[in-house]
Design goal:
WD40/YVTN_repeat-like_dom_sf; single chain; 5% helix; mainly beta; 6 helices; six-stranded antiparallel sheet; Xyloglucanase_GH74
Length: 867
């Protein structure tokens, strides 16, 4: 009876797709592969009592858990959950998780961009949202969560956005903090565009029933804009509660019924950016460490500063400055690479002027200057072992050391993670004079091209955390996480492992934050496929992942232009010459070679520029522009003819168009092997958005185009015969106004995905054309991708994506083994199953599927039902 029930649930009833949760079949399980990390990660949290368990919330909409100190990770979002935008899939970019000290499995967390509260009863493996709690919290974002260590019925929440380091900033005009973007905040004449509150209100809440209901216990008289930086409960006197805020330090001795603000306490500014507490169980004493905002202060034609690192040994009654030797001296400050950040961010953004204006106002370098540090942490088993972050990637400070350390409670500071040419070059003697080691002490593993690439590291990190027994430190830097097991003496990037020393074949840890793009196969190639990637060039699969973990899929990174001179680039599409598998082309949608077609004739070992599609500088500042160029296709007969698409809107979920004044969207063609291009849009809808082009494998002179439309602006399916110059509309069943994907099966059937989110189930979903007749085989309002197996055309995969507004109940991947008669949902293991950018069935390995995702990299699955 149970077995038949499971079988019945496995078969999808598309009429109930918007009304009933559909569980995925367990016979298809997706496993993440490819490089780990590979994108910014501002959220790392260790479990407070389990030294092996850690949580990460990278910025591409992911959340992960590791139970082996970061050796491997698992996704902790619900693969079968509803649309991403509903936040019902779990804690997206997990934020501030806290766990009971009586039951290590019970915990509460929130997320970065909303006040949603989630509960776990299995140590964070799975989470459930509590909507009733959200209403009680007034739609105000939660910044910190703390449980009473003696009673897990009692919890505290504090509001704020201060840990959102990409959007929350401190400036000369707004020293207590302002919420906006790095481009707007601090730029002369643009402060009017900044939302300084972002709906924020200073709040502290308390629950006495394990988080089911909450009471507002906010200190009376607190400035409404105050960010609650962190809350602490005294482990020996749990009625004593502490709160560090951007408007001072507060203490309650009656569980939050009343609060006292500690004034004239020794801090310069009373703007607490970060805070940590050490508790000595034997003496029952607490020690606090805090960062009071470092302010840059005009002093004639130079500047001075105040604020910095503080320590309190009397529960916050008084504070002592322990900056000691942390400030950088003039000799190091004059380093040209440091000067650039000094004038652009430390002074320019802080004072709200341009870098040029800052240099004119303050041309004289100060004798010494403190970094505007942003986070402090104390080792939970050693009160003298401290870490301080100088986040010059996101905040208004300057380079020259990004992770500071003290081994003696702040009497002496030194930079504990070092990479860059100037540690043992220009500045070596200056650092040695400070008793600061200069040896490069980080092993980048899979990102080895970063080693000593710049004078100092190009990007800093935002977060460093000790595990519960102080034996391991995790620090996020640039696009990866580094781990130290020797107090910070040495660091290892452990997001991936090499299958064999020196071969550069990588198995990821399972915490990818990589923007996946197109997946490219070729029937002539049996041992690998290609994977296009945002910010990470191209990967190709290898067959030796088992050397790291059983069943693991490994990849090799193809560097452009070559391994000796790798550039950071974003490849959106590539194509393989039908006559030569070593001859390939690649298109780049941002970063290096943006707007440039690149070519290789040796299988990807060396690349060279071919033709230029557009000049990025013609449309604005190219630094952060994004113009997608997709579905590069080579004419199967006249191989010097190339075609691709530049869409303004894409049906798949990925970064939006940010191309400034660029307007030349549509279908591009080259008739000279990619040297020059023209646009061939005649006959296509004027405001349509071309999504896909594909040659008919039977009638090789026919090129088809899928055009996305709306109920007001019709798209459709279009055909261009190479002997003609105008696209002709292909007849479709009445009501289909938007087409998204085109696929030709091995048995000469044509498939399209179609629909609009506000349309009818009759006019969307998946359609197949056989002998000129169309048939709907997924009766649903919307589908995005489709593919079939080369070895068995009855095997079909299709994707239904998230909708940004409607909150779809069952987005994801669907599979049929009987040519579309019956379907099963196959999301198991894939935390971004609702945001699939590419979907493929291996041409040669039966039952092996691949997909690329918006921001969780690549997944591979083995279908147990395919033999």
């Amino acid at each position: 009876m149970v077995t038949s029930l499971l079988i019945a649930q496995d078969k999808v009833d598309f009429s109930k797709l918007d009304s009933k949760r559909i569980e995925s079949t367990p016979t298809v399980k997706w496993e993440q592969f490819g490089p780990g990390g590979s994108g910014n990660n501002y959220h790392i949290y260790w479990h407070p009592t389990d030294p092996n368990t850690v949580y990460q919330g990278p910025n591409m909409g992911n959340s992960y858990r590791s139970t082996d100190k970061g050796e491997t990770y698992e996704g902790i979002m619900d693969p079968d959950g509803p649309s991403y935008k509903t936040r019902r899939r779990g804690p997206v970019e997990i934020y501030a998780p806290e766990f009971s000290r009586q039951d290590e499995n019970f915990g509460i967390c929130t997320i970065e961009d909303a006040n949603f509260i989630y509960f776990t009863s299995d140590k964070g493996k799975t989470w459930k949202i509590n909507d009733l709690v959200r209403a009680q919290l007034e739609n105000i974002h939660i910044n910190t969560i703390k449980v009473d260590p003696t009673d897990d019925n009692i919890w505290y929440l504090g509001s704020g956005n201060i840990r959102d380091s990409n959007h929350f900033f401190h400036t000369y005009k707004h020293p207590h903090g302002v919420f906006g973007s790095k481009k707007k905040v601090g730029v002369a004449g643009q402060n009017k565009d900044v939302n300084s509150n972002y709906g924020h209100q200073a709040r502290i809440w308390k629950s006495t029933d394990k988080g089911q209901t909450w009471k507002n216990i906010t200190p009376k008289g607190i400035e409404t804009k105050a960010q609650i930086t962190r809350i602490f409960v005294h482990p020996d006197q749990p009625q004593t509660v502490f709160a560090g805020t951007t408007y001072g330090f507060y203490k309650s001795e009656n569980g939050g019924k009343s609060w006292k603000k500690k004034v004239k306490n020794g801090m310069d500014n009373d703007i607490i950016r970060s805070m940590d507490m050490y508790y000595d169980a034997s003496s029952k004493k607490v020690i606090f460490y805090a960062i009071d905002l470092v302010k840059y202060i005009p002093n004639g034609n130079t500047i001075t500063y105040n604020g910095g690192i503080y320590k309190s040994e009397d529960e916050g009654e008084s504070w002592v400055n322990i900056n000691s030797n942390m400030p950088i001296n003039k000799a190091i400050l004059k380093n040209p690479s440091i000067q650039k950040g000094y004038y652009k961010f430390a002074l320019g953004k802080w004072f709200g002027v341009t870098a040029k204006e800052a240099k004119e106002l303050y041309p004289k370098a100060p004798n010494e200057l403190m970094h505007s540090v942003s986070m402090i942490r104390v080792n939970p088993v050693n009160p003298n072992h401290l870490l301080v972050i100088n986040n010059y990637k996101s905040q208004f400070t300057f380079p020259g050391g990004m992770l500071w350390r003290s081994d003696d409670g702040g009497k002496h500071w030194y930079v504990t993670l070092r990479n860059g040419k100037d540690w043992n070059g220009r500045d070596k003697a200056h650092w040695e004079a400070r008793n600061n080691p200069t040896k490069i002490n980080v092993d980048w593993i899979g990102q080895d091209e970063w080693e000593e690439r710049d004078p100092y590291d190009r990007k800093a990190g935002a977060v460093a955390e000790f595990n519960s027994d102080g034996s391991t430190i995790m620090y996020q830097v640039a696009k990866v996480v580094c781990v130290s097991n020797d107090n910070g003496d040495t660091w290892l990037e452990n997001d991936e492992k090499e299958t064999k020393a020196g071969n550069h074949h990588w198995v990821g840890a399972g915490n990818s934050n990589l923007p996946g793009e197109e997946i490219v196969q070729d029937e002539r190639i049996k041992d690998h496929i290609y994977l296009c990637a945002g910010e990470n060039s191209i990967f190709k699969t290898t067959n030796d992942g088992d050397l790291v973990r059983k069943g693991a899929q490994a990849v090799y990174k193809i560097s452009i232009p070559n391994k000796e001179n790798p550039k950071e680039c974003s490849v959106g599409s590539m194509a393989i010459d039908p006559k030569d598998v070593n001859h390939m082309y690649a298109l780049h949608f941002r970063q290096a070679y943006f707007g440039q077609l690149m070519e290789t004739k040796d299988g990807g070992q060396n690349w060279a520029p071919k033709g230029r599609i557009f000049e990025p500088t013609d449309f604005g500042n190219p630094l952060n522009m994004i113009i997608h160029q997709s579905h590069l296709r080579i004419d199967p007969v006249e191989t010097e003819h190339l075609y691709f698409v530049i869409p303004k809107k894409r049906v798949v979920h990925n970064v939006k168009f940010k191309g400034g004044k660029f307007k030349d969207f549509g279908i591009y063609r080259s008739q000279d092997g990619g040297k020059t291009f023209d646009i061939i849009n005649q006959g296509l809808p004027k405001n349509g958005h071309v999504q896909k082009i594909e040659f008919d494998p039977e009638n090789k002179s026919d090129l088809y185009a899928a055009v996305m439309g709306t109920t007001k602006q019709e798209g459709g399916l279009f055909l261009l015969n190479k002997k003609k110059s105008i696209w002709e509309k292909v007849d479709l069943p009445k009501g289909i106004v938007s087409v998204h994907d085109i696929h030709f099966s091995k048995d000469n059937k044509m498939y399209i995905t179609a629909g609009t989110f506000d349309g009818s189930n009759k006019h969307g979903g998946l359609w197949v054309r056989t002998k000129g007749q169309w048939k709907q085989i997924i009766p649903y309002k919307f589908a995005s991708l489709v593919t079939t197996a080369k070895y068995n055309s009855n095997i079909i995969l299709a994707a239904i994506p998230s909708d940004d507004t409607m909150g779809m109940m069952n987005p994801g991947i669907y599979r049929s083994l009987d040519a579309g008669k019956t379907w099963k949902k196959i999301n198991t293991g894939n935390i971004q199953s609702d945001r699939i950018n590419a979907l493929e069935i291996d041409y040669h390995k039966k039952g092996v599927y691949y997909c690329s995702t918006y921001g969780a990299g690549y997944y591979i699955a083995k279908d147990e039902e395919v033999k």
